[in-house]
Amino acid sequence: MSARPARRRAGATTAPRLNVAREGPAERRTRARAIARALARAHPDAWCALDYRNPWELLVATILSAQCTDKMVNAVTPALFAEFPGPAALAAADPARVETLVRRTGFFRQKTKALLAVARAIAGEHGGEVPPSLEALTALPGIGRKTANVVLGTAFGRPAIFVDTHVRRLAGRLGLTVEDDPDAIERDLRALLPPRAWTRFAHRLIHHGRQVCVARKPHCSRCALARWCPQVGVTASD
Q: Is residue 225 part of a domain?
C-alpha cells in the first residue's frame, strides 16, 4: 500500500528557493521593481511610525529612536516639544531637564548631548530651520546618512533611501545587495529603483520587516515577496 502524500499546509510556499547567483544588473533591476510593486500592493499606506509635525520634530524623533521603539519615542516627544518647541528653545535648555524628558528612550545622556548639539547648530547656522539637503544635514553634529535621509525623504519629500536594521536585513535576504555597510547598501538600492520610488520603498521595506520578514523567524509562507526572494541567509521560517 503506497504511503499517503503529506498534506500541504495552507499558504505554504513549496517552490524551491530562487537562485540569483548569476543574475545580471538588468535582471536584478527588473526583480527589484517587481518587489517594489508587490510591496506597494501589500503595504500601500506604510509610512514613518514616528509622530512629527515638521522636519525639526522628525529629526529629534529619529535621534531619539536609536535603540528605542517608535512607540516609546512617540510617548516622550509630546512633552519635549511642548516645553522646547524648536531648535532655539532646545539649544538654550538645561541639559538636566532634557535628560529627564527623554530618559525613557534609553541612553538619555548621550541623546541629550546629541539633541543640544544639533539644536545649537541649526539655531546658529541655519536660522532655526532644518536644512533640506543631504550635505547640510550630514554636516550637523552627530547626523549620519540614515537620519539625514529619513528627514529628507519623509519630511521634505526628496527622493531618499534610509538603511536601518530592517532595510539592511531585507535587502540582503532579497538578494538586492551583497554589501553589509549601510552606505553601500543605500548605493545598491538607489541603482535598482527610480528616484521617485525610493522613499516609499524604504518605508514599505521597514514595515514588511516588522510585520512579515522578521529577524529570527520570517513568515515566508505568507510573504507577498516570496516569488522574487532567494531567502539569502534564511535558515528557519514558518
A: yes
Residue 42 placed within a domain: no
Q: What is the pTM of this model?
A: 0.90
Q: Are 105 and 72 in contact (CB under 8 A)?
A: yes
Tens-digit pLDDT profile for residues 184-237: 999 999 999 999 999 999 999 999 999 999 999 999 999 999 999 999 999 888
Q: Tell me if 226 is assigned to some domain.
A: yes
Split into its structural domains, the chain has a count of: 2
Domain containing 82: what range? 55-154
What CA–CA distances, in Å, run from 141 to 102, 126, 136? 19, 13, 10
Residues annotated as catalytic (active site), given as ranges: 146, 164
Query: 78 and 147 share a domain?
Result: yes
